[in-house]
Amino acid sequence: MKQILTEEIFSSPQWLKIICYFFGPLLIVTGFGLLMQKDLPKEIIFLVPILLLIAVSMLMYTRLKLIISNTNIRFTGGLKRHQFLWTDITGIDMKIVGKYQTPVCTVYYGKKSLELHRGFYLKGNFNRILSLLEMKTAPELFTEQYQAIRRQIN
User: Fold this and answer.
1) Edge-to-edge order in the sheet of strand 112-117
2) Which of 71, 94, 111, 129 has a CB 3.0–4.6 Å from the CB of 146, allowing a cystine?
């Protein structure tokens, strides 16, 4: 197993963060603006919690980070935080999901799992993450399905 010399941080693309930082507060202001209206129909009031939920989700999405170092893997910023050592990994699987055949890599550790979606990290970063996983874990931890999909997406 090779060494990872520097800690690598993977997150959503910068252009997506800018969009979320712009539209998140805009949705919050719109939601509270709708609440301040006096002659607002009752049907519109039910949209306000939905707008606020979308805004909070957009702002939380920008904080998601996957940090891969020589000693461990950390996923921070979301509701579920993951932190585990390379030796804790019990298996790595991959599947193709959705209309656009997007690969999703699942890392199993202990009784938990961490799903890594190519739609979030985009192709270049996703391939780098897979390379780091292959570099630090034993080959027998990868399923045959992982190997087949990995050959297909290269």
Assistant:
1) 89-97, 102-109, 112-117
2) 94
